[in-house]
Amino acid sequence: MLRKYALKRLLVAVPSLLIASVIVFSLARLIPGDVVTLMMEENQYAQDLDEMRAKLGLDRPIYAQYVEWMGRIARGDLGQSLYTGKPVLRELAWRLPVSLELGAVALVFAVLIGIPIGVVAAVRQDTLRDYVARSGAILGLSVPGFWLGTLVVVLPAIYFGWSPPIEFTRLDDDPWRHVAQFLLPGFLLGVASAASIMRLTRTQLLEVLRQDYVRTAWSKGLAEPRVVLKHSLKNALIPVVTVLGIQIAQILSGTVIFESIFGLPGMGRFLFDAITERDYPVIQGINLVIVGTIVMVNLVVDVAYAWLDPRIRY
Amino acid sequence: MARPIEVEQVERWAVGRARPGALRRAVAGAGRFCRRKPLGAFGGLVVLALVLAAAFAERIAPYEFDAQIPDARLVPPGAEFWFGTDNVSRDIFSRIVFGARVSVTVGFSTVLLAALLAATVGITSGYFRGRYDIVVQRIVDAWQSFPYLIIILSLLAVLGPGMLNTILALSILTAAANSRVIRSATLSVVENPYIEAARAMGSGHVRIMARHILPNVAPTIVVVATISLGGVILAESALSFLGYGVPPPHPSWGGMLSGSGRTYMYKAPWMAIWPGVAISLVVFGFNMLGDALRDVLDPRLRGGAR
Amino acid sequence: MDLSRRDLLALGGLTLSGAALAPSVGRAATPKRGGAFRFRGYTPPHFDPHLTASYTTMINLSFTHGRLLKHKAGPTVKPGTFEYEGDLAEFFSHQDDTTYVFRLRKGVRWHPKPPVNGREMTAEDVRYTFDRFMTIKGNANRHMMKSLAKVDAIDKYTVKFTLSEPDAWFLDSLSNPMALCIVAPEAVEKFGDLKKPEAVIGTGPWMLEGHQSKVRTVWVRHPDYFVKGLPYIDRVEGIDFPDPAARLAAFITGQIDAGPEFPGMMIRQHDFDVVKAKRPQTRFVRFPSNVMTHIGMRTDKPPFNDIRVRKAMSLALDRKAISAATAPLGVVKNPPVPAALTAWAIPFDQLGEGAKYHEPNPKEARRLLKEAGHGNGFATTLDYATYGSQELIDAVQMAVKFFKDVGIEVTVNEKPYAAYFATAYQGKYEGLMMGPQFPALDPYNFLAQYLPGEPKNQSHVNDPALTDMILNSGRTLDEKKRRQQVWEIQKHIAKQVYYLRLDSGIYYAALDPALQEFGPNLGYDYGGRLMAAWWDK
Questions:
Q1: pLDDT tens per residue across span B215-263
Q2: Residue C260 placed within a domain
Q3: How do residues B120-153 score in pLDDT, each as one tens digit?
C-alpha cells in the first residue's frame, strides 16, 4: 500500500521536475539580445557574437536545445562556467554539501524553536503566554536576516574581541570546528523559519484540540498536559512535517545571505557570484540542482507523511 | 473648523452608502476584535500608520527625503531631529516616512498582483478539478520548489534589476504559494449544496466562480495576502543587501539599513536602528494582523481552546 | 629627436653609473625569518595573466612571479611614487629611441614544480612571454604594449625590445604589476593555458601551495629565490571574505594582519575610530587614493557641448560637502591627473584659471546657465553603478541634489556593474555618467581619457590641440620635459571642464605593528611590497 503510494507520488514528482527544468532552461532564453553582446564585450566570454550565442545555446531551435540540454544533464553534465571554465558539477559537488549542512542545522533549530512555541501558543490561545510566545517567534522572523547576522559578527568583535572565524574549515581538517562554524548562521537562519513552523503547529493543534476525541479525553478528567501531549500533539504534528519541505526552500534562500556574512563557500554565494558575473550556465546549474533537491525532499516528506498518517491516501 | 472638502465628501459618501446601523456594527466589531485579538489590533495599527505615512509623506515629514541640511551631519537623535541625521546631513525621520512609500508600493503592488494571479489559479483549479487541476498543480509545485531569493536573483540577473522586475518576480512566487491555500478553500466551498443549486439553475462557470465562490474564499485571500506582505517587505530588504533593491534616490528601508546603516553602524548606530525598527515593526504588524484575521475568519479556529 | 645615450640612461630615475638595477632590500635591524602573513585575499577568475585584466589575478601573481622591472617598495618609499628598479633584469640600455636591451640576472630559478622543476630562467622565456602576450586571443591588456614591434633573445641573458615608435611610457608599462610578469613556456605547454593553480609557476619570492576558490589561497617561501635570504616570511595566506562588516570584525579580532579593504591594505575612513579603539597598536599609514571619481558629460552633444553649461555644472557641485559626507578624515583635490600620483599631478594651487571651477558657486552657475539659454534649467540622465560602495551612492545622490538646486533635473539610472562597465564606462550613455576611474599608477591612463577614439574617453572629448599635446608628451623621453608637458596638459583640461572631478579620499593603511620593513602603496603589487618584510614578534 505504502509502496504503491510512494510510486504514485514519484510519478507526480516527475512532471514537477520537468516543468521546473523548463523554467530553469528558459532563464537563458530570457536574456535580452543586447545583453548577449554585453557578455561578450564585458567579460570576454567569447571572441564573437556567434560563439557567444553558441555557448549559451541560442543558436538552434528551442526544443532541440532543450532535448540536448536534458540529455547532457542526464549524463551528469551541467555545462561549464563561462567565468572560470570549470565544470559546474564539480564546483557544486563541494559547495552543495556546505549549503545543505547549513540548511540542516537551520532546520534543527527551526523545529526546536518552532514546535514548543506553537504548542504553548495553541494550548493557551489568546492568553498572555500565547501573545508572548508568538510575538517572540514572529519578531525573530521580522528582523532582516542580514542585519541579525551583521550584529552577531560585529558586536562580539567590539565587546569581547571575538568574532566568528572568517576562514572556512573543512570536515577533514577539523571536524569539530567544521560543525561549529555552522551553529551561529544555522541558528539565525532557523529563527526565521521557526515562525512558520510555530504558526502551523499552533493552527493544527487548535484544530485537533477541538475534535471530539480530545473533548472526550477531556471529559474523562484526564490531566490537561497529558491530553495535549499524548493525544493531540502527535496528530497535530503530522501536517507540520509537510511544511518542512517548503521550509527547506526558504532556508536555502537564506543561505545566499548567511554564506556571505559568515564566509561559507556554499551554493548561495556561488550563485550570487555567478549572477554578478552573468555566468548563466552556473545560474542554471545551481537552480536545477536546488530544485531537484527540493522536489526530492518533498517526495520523501510526503511518503513519510503517508506513513505517519494512514488516513492520507490519494 | 474648516476641513478639507474631500474628507467631508468621502465621509458623506461612506455613511450614505452604509446601511443604517452598519457603521455602528462595524465599530463594535472592531472593538471586539481589539479586545479579543490585541496583537492583531496592534498589527492593524502599525499597518494603518504605514499606509498613512506613505500617503501623506509630504505633510508628515519635516524635510524632503533628499534635503541636505546645513551643519547637521551625523547628529544623534534628539529634539531637533527625532531620529538623527545621516552622513549626508539628511533627516532620518523624513527618510523613514518617505521610505514607507517604497514599502507600500512594492508590498501592495506585489501582493495585489499575486492575489489576482493566485485567486485565478486557485479558484479555477479547485472548481474545475480533474486534469486541469493536476496540470496546474504540477506547475505550482515546480514554482514552489524554487527558493524565492534564488529564483528572484536569477530572474533579475536576466531581466535586469529595477522596481518593476522585482515586483513581477516577487508576485509570481507569492502567487504560487498562495494559490495552494485558495485552492483548498475553494475545494471546501464547492462541496456546498448551493453551488450545485446554482449550477442546476443554469449559471455559467464564470458566474458561479465570481458570484458564489469568490465571496466565500475572499477572507482566505485577504489573510494570505496580509501575511505575504510582511514577507515581501523582508524580501525587498534582503535584495537591497545583495545590491538588487530599489535604487536611489527614493529611500527604501532595506537600502537604508543594508547600505548606509551597515556602513556607519559603528559611528552612527541610529542610521541603522531606525530603518531596522521600521522594517521589523511593519513585518511584525502584517504577520500579527494576518494571524488574527485568520483566527477570526477561519471558522475551524474560531473560539478558545477551553 | 636627438638625445644622446647618456641622457636616455638618466630616464626613469635610474642612476647614470651603468644603470645598475639593485633591488632595495631592507637594511633595518637584523631581520628574522619565519612566520605567516594573513591578509584579505581575492579569488581570481583564473591565474592566466594574459587572458584577463582582473586585478584579482594580478594580486595573486604578485607573490609568485617576477617581471623585468618592478616598483621600488619599502617603508622609505613615498606612497604614490613608482620608481622602477630591476627585478629579473639587472641592467638595461637604450640603443636609440625605439630600442631597449635588457641584461637578465643570472641564476634566477623557476619554482621547483613540474614541469619546469626549478630550471634557470633565460632570455628565451622572456621572449616567449612577450610573444604570447602579443599574440594570444583575448588579452585585454594588450594595449599596454601597443608600441612594441618585436622581442629578440640575443643570447641566454640578453633580450632586445624594438618599438614601432618612441614611447615614453614604455618602461612604466613594463614595470606595472603583473600583466607582464614572465611565465614559463613548459607550463603553458603542459596545461594548455595558465588558468589552473597548478600552472602558477613563476620566479617570484613565494610559490602557490594551495588555492580554494572563495576560501583561501596559500603561498609558501620559494627556497631558491634569486635574492639570497629573501623572503623572510615563510607563509602567506589570503583569505577571501565577501562581507565588509565581517572583514572589519576579522581585522579587529586579529584574524588578519592588515586592513581588509581594497586596494592595498586599508580600512574605510569611517571605521578608523573603532579600529583605533579596539586594535590600538595598529600602525596606520596615510596617503591619498588614486581612485578618482568623476562625472563624464556628452561634450559632443547639447547641452554639454557648451562650455558655459559644463562650467555651471562644476560650479553647482559642492565638492567639500560631498567629501565631508563620504570621507570625513580627509581628501585631496584632484587635478586631471589624480593628486595621489605625486610625480605627475600638477599641484592644485598651480592649476591656474581652471581651479576656480572646483569651488561651489551656485549663483554663478545659474547665471552661466541663463547665458547659455537654459534659464529654466534642463533635464538629463546620469548612469552609474554602485560598485557596492555606499560612499559612491551617497556622492551620486548629493551631486544630483546639487544639480537640482541650480535647476538641472537629473534622472539616475543605476546599472549592474557589468552592464555599466560595458556601456557608460566606455562612453555609451546619453547625458551624464559618474564613477571611479581605473586606479592606474601612471598618468598616461588618465590622459588617454581625452583622446578621440579611446574607449575610456567617456566625455567624448575631441580637442585637436589637446590631442596633439598628449601624443607629443608620449614621444618626449626626457622626463623633466615630459612632466612640464603633462602639467600644461592638465591646466588646459581644467579650463575646458571636460569632466567634473571629485576629491579623492585619504587612504588609511592599517598594519600589525610587528610587521617590519613594509611600506604600503597603491597598486596590485602585494607580493613585491611584502618581499623584504619580516615579523618582529
A1: 888 888 888 898 889 989 998 888 888 888 877 777 899 989 988 888 8
A2: no
A3: 999 999 888 888 988 888 888 888 778 878 888 8
Return d(Cα B242, Cα B255) in angstroms, integer.
10
Residue-averaged pLDDT of chain B: 83
Strand, coil or helix: what is C380? strand
Asked whether residue B174 carries a pLDDT value surpassing 50, the answer given is: yes
User: What is the per-residue pLDDT across C396-413, written as a single tens digit (0 to 9) for each?
Assistant: 999 999 999 999 999 998
DSSP assignment of C102-167, as one string? EEEPTT-B--S-TTTTTPBP-HHHHHHHHHHHHHSTT-TTGGGGTTEEEEEEEETTEEEEEESS--
In a domain, C146, yes or no: yes
Judge whether C499 and C295 are in contact, CB under 8 Å. Answer: yes
Range of the domain at C106: 5-22+31-241
Any B CB within 8 A of C268 CB: yes
| Stretch among A274-283, B47-56, C203-212 having the lowest mean pLDDT | A274-283
Residue C372 has pLDDT above 70, yes or no: yes
On whether both C218 and C338 belong to a single domain, the answer is: no
Chain B residues with CB inside 8 Å of A82's CB? none
Q: How many domains does one find in chain C?
A: 2
DSSP B247: P
**What CATH number corresponds to the domain at position C131?**
3.40.190.10
CB contact under 8 A, B266 and C273: yes
Q: For residues C162 and C99, state if they share a domain.
A: yes
The structural domains of chain A, with segments of one domain joined by +, span 88-313
**Quick check: A279 contacting C, CB < 8 Å?**
no
Q: Is B164 left (phi over 0), alpha (psi -120 to 50) or beta?
A: alpha
Q: How far is A41 from chain C (nearest CA, A)?
A: 7
Percent of chain C with pLDDT over 90: 72
Identify whether residues C301 and C235 lie together within a single domain. Answer: no
Do C346 and C470 lie in one domain? The reply is yes
ipTM of the complex in this document = 0.82
Give the separation between CA C369 and CA C311, rounded to whole angstroms: 9
Please name which of A252, A244, A286, A231 lies closest in space to residue A89, comparing C-alpha atoms: A286
Helix (H) / strand (E) element for C530: namely helix C526-530
Q: Choose the closest CB to C417 out of A150, A158, A276.
A: A276
The C-alpha of A143 sits at a distance from chain B's nearest C-alpha, in angstroms, of: 5
Query: Are both C236 and C298 inside the same structural domain?
Result: no
CATH number, domain with residue C366: 3.10.105.10
CATH tag, A88-313: 1.10.3720.10
pTM reported for the whole predicted model: 0.85
Nearest to A257 by CA among B234, C194, B15: B234
- Give the model confidence (pLDDT) of C37-81 as tens digits: 999 999 888 899 998 888 889 999 999 999 999 999 999 999 999
Task: Looking at the structure, tell me whether residues C394 and C329 fall in a common domain.
Answer: yes
